[in-house]
Every structure is written in structure tokens, then in C-alpha cells.
Write the C-alpha cells for this entry.
Amino acid sequence: MKKSAKTASLLLLAAGMLSSCSTQYLNVTGVAYQSIRAKEPVTSRLDIPQDATIIVSCQVGGNGEFNVLVQNNTDKMMTIDRTKSFFRNQSGNSEPYYDPTVRVQSQSTTVSGQTGASVNLGSIASAAGVGGVLGTALGGVNVGGSRGTATTNTNTTYIVDQPQISIAPHGQASMGRTFMIEGVGLSFLSQAVQGAQTDVSNVFSPTQTYAACNLCISYSVDEGKSFETIFTDIYANSLLVSKVKQIGQVNDALRYIYLHKNDALTEPWYALYFQSDAKKNNNKVQISEILNYK
């Protein structure tokens, strides 16, 4: 695709996001763009060789939520050791996928009722020969011999994490925990636009990035006799902010972003944020899997 056509695609994308069926006047004051990728990127699943053993699919949400799917690409059972698999953030802190904490959930249900009988005083007065006005008055009084009862049932569920998970041949499984990548997502871009005094155009290398994470998966295909590891390094490779110089000149801000990032729409994950007074969310997050294999 030619450069002019790509620029037009970016402008059309923005036009569709900033328009609606109803009349809406937007005051866009800034645009921010961010993209993330793997240190050793895999463009698509078509680039993965058929004899690969394991395929790791990383998925990042609109505010940096990090989830992982693991695919067994062999004809054997695969074992994932979650005690030796971990996520490491930009600060260098590592968290294992296995959480030894036992979580308890309790729910109580109470059932109440009454037992026993009540006696009408009028019948007693009649049997005792009491009549007249007093007998009539006693006929409207009941003395309860009943008593209330209540039974409480408590159901307690103990949630225990699994240290290992098994994946069937050519099957896949989730690693089971969601982590957060610091400095990634729409909330971060909102702060970046508000804090920028001038236009910002930064394209980063893996060693100079402001946001990164590292993933390690420990796996076995010989029934747990031996384990291997696969590492995936993910980093933010761009951050661009363009202030809208005059009301209505949003296209100029978008051209600025594309001028410094001409592959903006081909990244596996990117976020495009518009700072405006619109109540409707007009931001774009392109979520595609970030792949790795071994």
C-alpha cells in the first residue's frame, strides 16, 4: 500500500470513530498513539513452522491487561508447570502463575418457620360456662402456643490453584491469571496527552522502551520427566502525541502521527486516543495476538 493510501486509511479510521448517527459537536484537543510488539515479532500464525512444539499467544487489553494462551502443537500430552512460569514487569518484579493462596467463598441461607398450635379463649370460656359480654370478648382472643424456628445452611467453597495443567495434543489452555503492563493503554495515553506541552514523537528499541514485560512458560512433552522454557519479551515501541493546534484540525494531528510512524496501522497491538469533550468513547484499540513459538 502506498504512503498516501495509508495516510487516507488513518484519516478514514479517525473519521468513522469521531462521527455518529446523531449530531455531535466535538472539541478534540489532542491525539495520542501507542503500539507494542514482541522483541522477536511473529507476523502471523502462517509464519510458525508446522513442527513447532509450543505456541504462545499473548493478548493485551485496552488498559494493559495481559493474558496468555498456550497451544500444544504436538501429538503428545503437554504439561505446563505454573510454579516455574512467571510474568515480570518493567520494574523487574516477577510473579509466578501459581498462587498457593487458598481462597474461601461462603454463602449462608436462613429458612424460618413456626411450630405448635394456638388456642381460642372463647372456646375455653364456653366450656367453663362463661357467657355474656365477657364470653363474646374472649372469643376474639387467641393464645399462641407456637414458637418460631430458623435453620441456617452455610455452603463453603475452597478455591485452590493448580500447580500444573495438562494440554491435550493440538489443544490450548489459558495460563489462568491476568497481569498488568505498566504504561500501556488508553488511561496512560489520556495522561500523556494532558501532560504534553508540545508534540511528542518517540520510537523505541527493546532496550530503551518505557514499558516492557517478560513472560516465561515452563513446559514438558515427556510426561513431566524434563521441562523446557520459552521466553517472550514484549515492549512498547512507540509513543506519539500531537496537539490540535486549531479547532477542527484533527487531520493535521493524525498526519503528524503517520509521518513519524508509517506502519501505525499494521502493528499487532496499537491504541489511538482522542482527547475530546465527547461523552461517547471514540477511542480505538487494535487487539491482536502477539505470538511466539518454539
In short: Helices lie at 3-18, 121-127, 132-138, 186-195, 250-260. The longest helix spans residues 3-18. The chain has a mean pLDDT of 81. The radius of gyration is 33 Å.
